[in-house]
Write a structure and sequence with these properties.
Layout (H helix, E strand, L loop, with lengths): L11 E8 L6 E7 L5 E3 L15 H8 L5 H8 L3 H25 L3 E12 L6 E9 L5 E8 L6 H9 L6 H12 L3 E10 L4 H8 L4 E5 L4 E3 L2 E5 L7 H13 L14 H20 L13
Parallel strand pairs: 4-7, 7-8
Antiparallel strand pairs: 1-2, 2-3, 4-5, 5-6, 9-10
The chain binds zinc ion.
Zinc ion (ZN) binds next to loops.
């Protein structure tokens, strides 16, 4: 155990206990011998300072199953803030879990990579979500979210209404490859679409890897660009995962009322979904998918 306040100190002593008023559980307290601050065992769980702990897993599963935050609050009979608070908490926890997962898993040899486009508040303010997926297993490995300027007919309207908008695509791609660094094999195959933004990054971060480019294809279902027409899709594992993300996160569904208002919350939601997705693929017991900090 490491002290949560000064982080580095491991000199920790037991320091009594207390009974939690909300459920009567006895919790151990600890004292850090370096910064002298005290904390309890509950400090490290996802339930820390949440009184309605029995809601947590239901909120986690609902938010990853296409239920909006407001509707989740109505179904469970709680305040909207209770759900919003949990989204943030679960996002942080899932981000940590994903990092641990990248460190502990075997090296990735086949990678699919693309960006998913969405927007904050209006289509005039687009966002990009870069997501890396492992080929075959469909595990989500890394995520980054950034703002991008509007394209096409909306570009001039967007500039007039909201002013110039930064392009954070480069930062997103840098972030994705930095995250992936620890779990990539020295040689492998990366598949992407024919975007011109990717080759420089692949040369820089994936030296020794071969790069397979797939030309873009039209979607076969109206409004679902992820499912491609015309037989076998080389980017199937990626597109299938993206379709699942759009189905699982209400704010990413097409033609929805629920829009993202803050890119940071979109990132939290994506991390949460990614962890849910990986848990779902890995666990044999699909009835008890639950979120907890892993180490
Ligand atoms: Zn300390």
């Amino acid at each position: 155990m490491v002290c949560p306040f000064c982080v580095k100190s491991k000199k920790i002593k037991k320091n009594g206990s207390y009974i939690r008023s909300s459920d009567g559980k006895r919790c151990q307290r600890f004292r850090c011998l370096e910064c002298c601050r005290t904390f309890s065992e509950t400090h490290f769980g996802i339930e820390y300072r949440l009184r309605k702990r029995y809601l947590n897993q239901a909120v986690f599963r609902s938010l990853c199953s296409g239920v909006s935050q407001r509707r989740c609050a109505i179904i469970l009979g709680v305040q909207r803030a209770a759900i919003a608070r949990r989204l943030l908490r679960f996002g942080k926890c899932s981000e940590h879990n994903l990092e641990v997962y990248r460190k502990s898993r075997e090296k990735v040899k086949k990678l699919n990579f693309d960006e998913l486009e969405t927007f904050e508040h209006t289509k005039c303010k687009p966002l990009t979500a870069a997501i890396a997926v492992e080929d075959k297993s469909r595990k989500i490995l890394a995520i980054a979210v950034g703002r991008i300027p509007a394209k096409g007919p909306l570009a001039s309207l967007s500039r007039k209404k909201y002013g110039p908008r930064p392009c954070e695509r480069k930062r997103c791609l840098e972030s994705i490859f930095t995250q992936l660094k620890m779990c990539l094999a020295s040689k492998g195959l990366v598949k992407t679409d024919k975007s011109k933004a990717y080759p420089p990054f692949i040369r820089k971060y994936l030296a020794g890897w071969s790069h397979e480019v797939t030309p873009g294809r039209r979607g076969c279902v109206v409004g679902q660009g992820e499912l491609k027409e015309g037989g076998w899709d080389p980017l199937f594992y990626l597109n299938h995962t993206y379709a699942m993300i759009r189905d699982g996160l209400k704010r990413l569904a097409r033609r929805t009322w629920c829009t993202t208002k803050n890119p940071k919350r979109l990132l939290s939601a994506l991390y949460m979904y990614a962890w849910f997705h990986n848990l779902y693929l890995e666990s044999k017991d699909k009835k008890h998918l639950s979120l907890c900090w892993i180490s």
